[in-house]
Backbone:
């Protein structure tokens, strides 16, 4: 990891400084709606731990698990599954006693250790250590890593004062990144609240807007074709379903089309298009994304449609897009899907086009669209700044643990 160890630094195995404590195999049958939180892999979120969706167990059922209480300052790590290596930091202000589930490890630094907790936490998040974990855990259908393997990595150990300096620099930069992400999340919340203020709940329709079917405003739904992926680079790419799955258009989620495939104009994705997936899991079917920008060589697949609006439709696509993000509205949409498989459902065009939607006056939709565009411009600038901060943080992290900071 270190090219040339600076004077006064050491190279040591993690296990010489701190041990990894394993979790307890709590019985799922003992879990209840109340009781002590049990920290599982899903509760790890890097900077902290998420207690909002914890499994809980009555304290009288803790049994031997009572010895597996986590402590402030512990750094938790996933020891199995697709997210092996995922981290969670236990804050000092933990609101209640929490207990460690099996396959979650805890790095607990002794009080007399020469290792600074914040420095160590930052080091565990480096590409170097995460690659070490992935390498040792890989090679099996279900990745697993042991405490001994987690402890085996050789890490740089500068003097305590230098550890604190490095941690402070990285913390300062990371705090800026966190604030930028929080600001982006607040803008998303602002859009949601603005929609509700202007139009009300789209299912309950408390403002009494006209109700129309999609077929009243949609001329047709254009889709592409299921074509085999090209093994070589060609002029056109076709979207994958993942390009719209999470409500954001991602043109990079695409694959090359065969060179001999003639792409019809109706297949091409353009700025201003509203796209919807016709096939996915029950939770994700009908995912909708608005195309703000796109390369000119992106084509639709057979599982994504774009809306072609009627010439006289009193509709603003950005209104429909934000309508489609409403949870209750999405639940109604998903209920129209068919298929016996729990992993993949389909929605037919007639069922989608018969979907009832509220239709406020066009001037109000246009006013909302102007607000959306203004906020999206702010988000775009913030995302650029966040990318710059991410790049800076990665550079500082690399230099810090190479002794070059």
Residues:
């Amino acid at each position: 990891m270190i090219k040339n160890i600076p004077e006064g630094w050491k190279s040591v195995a993690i296990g010489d400084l701190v041990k990894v404590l394993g979790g307890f195999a709590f019985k799922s049958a003992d879990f209840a709606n109340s009781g002590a939180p049990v920290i599982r892999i899903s509760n790890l979120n890097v900077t902290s731990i998420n207690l909002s969706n914890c499994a809980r167990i009555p304290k009288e059922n803790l049994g031997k698990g009572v010895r597996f209480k986590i402590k402030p300052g512990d750094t938790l790590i996933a020891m199995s599954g697709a997210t092996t290596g995922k981290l969670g930091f236990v804050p000092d202000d933990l609101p209640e006693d929490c207990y460690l589930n099996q396959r979650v490890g805890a790095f607990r630094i002794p009080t007399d250790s020469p290792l600074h907790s914040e420095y160590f936490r930052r080091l565990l998040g480096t590409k170097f250590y995460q690659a070490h974990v992935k390498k040792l855990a890989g090679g099996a259908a279900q990745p697993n890593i042991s405490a001994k393997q987690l402890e085996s990595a050789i890490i740089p150990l500068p003097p305590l004062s230098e550890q604190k300096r490095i941690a402070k620099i990285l913390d300062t930069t990371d705090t800026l990144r966190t604030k930028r992400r929080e600001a982006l999340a607040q803008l998303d919340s602002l859009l949601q609240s603005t929609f509700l203020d202007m139009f009300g709940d789209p299912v309950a329709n408390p403002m009494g807007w006209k109700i129309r079917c999609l077929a009243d405003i949609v001329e047709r739904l254009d889709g592409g074709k299921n074509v085999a992926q090209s093994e070589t680079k060609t002029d056109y790419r076709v979207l994958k379903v993942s390009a719209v799955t999470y409500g954001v258009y991602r043109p990079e989620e695409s694959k090359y089309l065969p060179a001999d495939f003639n792409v019809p104009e109706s297949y091409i994705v353009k700025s201003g298009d509203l796209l919807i997936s016709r096939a996915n899991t029950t939770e994700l079917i009908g995912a909708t994304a608005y195309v703000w920008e796109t390369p000119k060589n992106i084509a639709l697949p057979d599982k994504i449609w774009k809306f072609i609006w009627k010439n006289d439709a009193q509709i603003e696509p950005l209104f429909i897009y934000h309508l489609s993000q409403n949870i209750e509205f999405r639940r109604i949409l998903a209920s129209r899907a068919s298929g016996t498989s729990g992993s993949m459902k389909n929605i037919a065009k007639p069922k989608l086009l018969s979907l009832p939607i509220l239709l406020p006056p066009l001037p109000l939709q246009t006013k909302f669209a102007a607000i959306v565009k203004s906020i999206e411009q702010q988000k775009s600038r913030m995302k650029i700044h966040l990318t710059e901060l991410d790049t800076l943080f990665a550079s500082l992290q690399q230099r810090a643990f190479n002794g070059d900071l």
About this structure: The longest strand covers residues 218-223.
